[in-house]
Design goal:
The protein is α/β, with parallel strands linked by helices and about 625 residues long. The chain has four domains: about 200 residues, 3-Layer(aba) Sandwich (Rossmann fold), CATH 3.40.50.300; about 180 residues, P-loop containing nucleotide triphosphate hydrolases (Rossmann fold), CATH 3.40.50.300; about 100 residues, Orthogonal Bundle (Arc Repressor Mutant, subunit A), CATH 1.10.10; about 90 residues, DNA polymerase, domain 1. Helices cover about 45% and strands about 15% of the residues. The strands form four sheets. Strands 3-4-2-5-6-1-7 form a seven-stranded parallel β-sheet, sandwiched between helices. A six-stranded parallel β-sheet has the order 8-13-12-9-11-10, with helices on both faces. Strands 14-17 form a two-stranded antiparallel sheet. Bound molecules: adenosine-5'-diphosphate and zinc ion. GO terms for molecular function: 3'-5' DNA helicase activity; ATP binding; DNA binding; four-way junction helicase activity; hydrolase activity; metal ion binding.
């Protein structure tokens, strides 16, 4: 019996409450229903899970999902339970009896989906038990981890292919269907995935990195602290993540926000397990809206209502950037991704590469990737087109909404300041760092300045009307825009680049783009008060059910509720993201609220604080 797309669509509507598949999903699910091995490359938030879950629900037998992220596993299984789907997971957070119970359920055919970490496949015990399960389909999540060229290589992924072979041998040659999914794969990684997972003549579907709801911006030469503070202040009602490269930056930014009265969380590998778990929890449950973190944060965070991801530093490569920025707007609502580039970031990243114990070949590869990341920060073309090309999608149209497509910044002529700075660097013989140049321009008479006779230079004190920090900021703009170069090493030295000569000769003007105010692009909800009310209601339900709020309903579903205000089960089912199981489990309090509002309006009462009064 072959399964059809219309059956799949029916499942999507009944179980998930969505009208139709996205374009890439249709293609992937179509192939899987024909039992063809498939590789799905989809951006974060593109809707990967549905690609394997819907076939899993339609097929006989068990679907094994191999996923490296323990927290994500629990999340996915919670989400499936809330949809009324029988699913379980086995990982290191459980004791043996719990794992045994789940396996027992799977053996008896009581589960449709079983999530396991790849490390399981290395255990003889698990492999033997797995032969007793009727595994008809294996979905490999984060499949790029099998490749050395990928950014998070995991040896245990190499155990997948032998495991599948073993299963097939046990079943007289009948091999489960295999699908591999990832959000970020360059062509070389894709090739590795196919070869190392031993996919058989797979269909390859790349749904594209374009996320219509994300507006990307790269800013160079901003005063980052001021920018970050301003930015978050304008978005206190939104959920956001700020990524910084070092623990120290995380601590500093976190302090700054807290001092400014903004409840913020922090997350990095230097905190205790307890504190990290607590921070993650508070963020997932919307108790804090903004979190400052290193890249240790986010793997496995499936929070759907993140409205902005602000990168305080340039990450080490495009793969990392796309993954981190992609955590914004998973619910499909308009969201922002802003990267603050500073020339110092290049030195930091080079330092990380040099410090690592990787082989020269590997280091060369890392440098190449870093260069692509730097080019991204400098490119004048559409940022999305750049990303698409990097990941192998060519000939794409500009997105029309990124910072480069839509540059609304003000241009300020800084030619005069630039000339003073260049001239000073020249007179200091291009042997000093940014802060020393700034001290001289400020007119400082500190020991070093005097010892070197810089107080006698005609440029000494030429910019005394500015603070040293402001002068440094301008120097960094000039570095970022390619007028000045910064040498490598522990004490980087500023040098003039050929373009600076043209400026000194008065043949070229210098402009700085000023973007200190990046106004929120994200639209406010139709009815903020009602939306807030629904959020509170959702939080109570989530707390009782012991799951994060977005497992109950995500923000876009709540938003649609503020418009549709359903008072019957049928009307409720028409809201996007509401399936049959969810109406049964979580629907009643919402229906009660909307019915109450309707009555109130009918009797012309002012809508009051009903929600708090009734104590939901
Ligand atoms: P990924 O795993 O690719 O990052 P998810 O599977 O978590 O993405 O899906 C991202 C979001 O998109 C989820 O909130 C999901 O419910 C929603 N979604 C997925 N498919 C559809 C669809 N066909 N219609 C509407 N929303 C969808
Ligand atoms: Zn663009």
């Amino acid at each position: 019996m072959t399964l059809t797309m219309s059956e799949a669509r029916l499942t999507l509507q009944k179980v998930y409450g969505y009208d139709d598949f996205r374009e890439g999903q249709t293609r992937i699910i179509g192939h899987l229903l024909e039992r063809k091995d498939t590789v799905g490359i989809m951006p974060t938030g593109g809707g990967k899970s549905i690609c394997y879950q819907v076939p899993a629900l339609l097929q006989h037998g068990l679907t094994l999902v191999i996923s490296p992220l323990i927290s994500l596993m629990k999340d996915q299984v919670d989400a499936l339970h809330s949809l009324g789907v029988r699913a379980g997971y086995i990982n290191s957070t459980q004791d043996a009896s719990e794992a045994g119970r789940i396996l027992y359920e799977a053996e008896r055919g009581q589960l449709k989906l079983l999530y396991v970490a790849p490390e399981r496949l290395e255990s003889e015990w698990f492999r033997e038990r797995a032969k007793q399960l009727r595994i008809s389909f294996i979905a490999v999540d984060e499949a790029h981890c099998v490749s050395h060229w990928g950014h998070d290589f995991r040896t245990s992924y190499r155990a997948i292919a032998p495991f599948v072979r073993e299963l097939a041998a046990h079943n007289y040659g009948e091999r489960p269907l295999l699908a591999a999914f990832t959000a970020t794969a360059t062509p070389e990684v894709t090739e590795d995935m196919i070869r190392l997972l031993e996919l058989q003549e797979p269909e390859l579907i790349v749904t594209g990195f374009k996320r219509d709801n994300l507006a990307f911006t790269v800013l160079r030469g901003e005063n980052r602290k001021d920018f970050a503070l301003n930015y978050v202040r304008q978005r206190t009602n939104m959920v956001g993540i700020i990524y910084a490269s070092t623990r120290k930056d995380v601590e500093d930014l976190h302090n700054m926000l807290v001092k400014a009265g903004i409840p913020a969380g922090r997350y990095h590998a230097g905190l205790s397990d307890d504190e990290r778990a607590q921070m993650q929890e508070a963020f997932l449950y919307d108790d804090i809206r903004v979190i400052v973190a290193t890249n240790a944060f986010g793997m496995g965070i499936d929070k759907s209502n993140v409205r902005y991801v602000l990168h305080y530093n340039m990450p080490k490569h495009m793969e990392a950037y796309v993954q981190e920025a992609g955590r914004a707007g998973r619910d499909g609502e308009a969201s922002e991704c802003v990267l603050l580039f500073h020339p110092q970031d290049i030195l930091t990243q080079k330092f990380f590469i040099e410090q690592s114990e990787a082989l020269p070949e590997r280091k060369a590869h890392e440098y190449k990737k870093l260069q692509s990341m730097i080019d991204f920060c400098y490119t004048p073309e559409c940022l999305v087109t750049y990303m698409q090309r990097y990941f192998g999608e060519i000939d794409q149209q500009p997105c029309g909404m990124c910072g480069n497509c839509k540059d609304e910044r003000e241009q300020v002529d800084i030619t005069l300041d630039a000339q003073k700075i260049f001239s000073c660097i020249y007179r200091m013989r291009e042997r000093w760092g940014v802060s020393m140049v700034a001290s001289v321009l400020k007119g400082s008479r500190n020991k070093k300045v005097v010892q070197n006779g810089f107080d006698l230079l005609p440029t000494h004190g030429m910019m005394r009307h500015l603070t040293e920090k402001a002068i440094s900021d301008i120097i960094y703009v000039l570095i970022a825009d390619g007028y000045l170069g910064l040498s490598e090493g522990q004490y980087p030295v500023v040098r003039l680049l050929p373009t600076a000569a043209d400026v000194l000769k008065g043949q070229q003007q210098v402009f700085q783009k000023v973007a200190n105010e990046l106004k929120p692009k994200v639209e406010a909800a139709v009815d903020e008060t009602l939306f807030e009310q629904l959020r509170l209601l959702r939080r109570d339900i989530a707390n009782k059910a012991n799951v994060p709020p977005y497992i109950v309903f995500n923000d876009s579903t709540l938003r649609e509720m503020t418009e549709k205000r359903p008072t019957t089960v049928d009307a409720f089912l028409k809201v996007k993201g509401v399936g049959e199981a969810k109406v049964q489990k979580f629907g009643q309090p919402f229906l009660d609220l909307f019915r109450h509002l309707e009555q109130q309006e009918a009797s012309q009462d002012e809508p009051s604080g009903w929600y708090e009064d009734e104590g939901y």
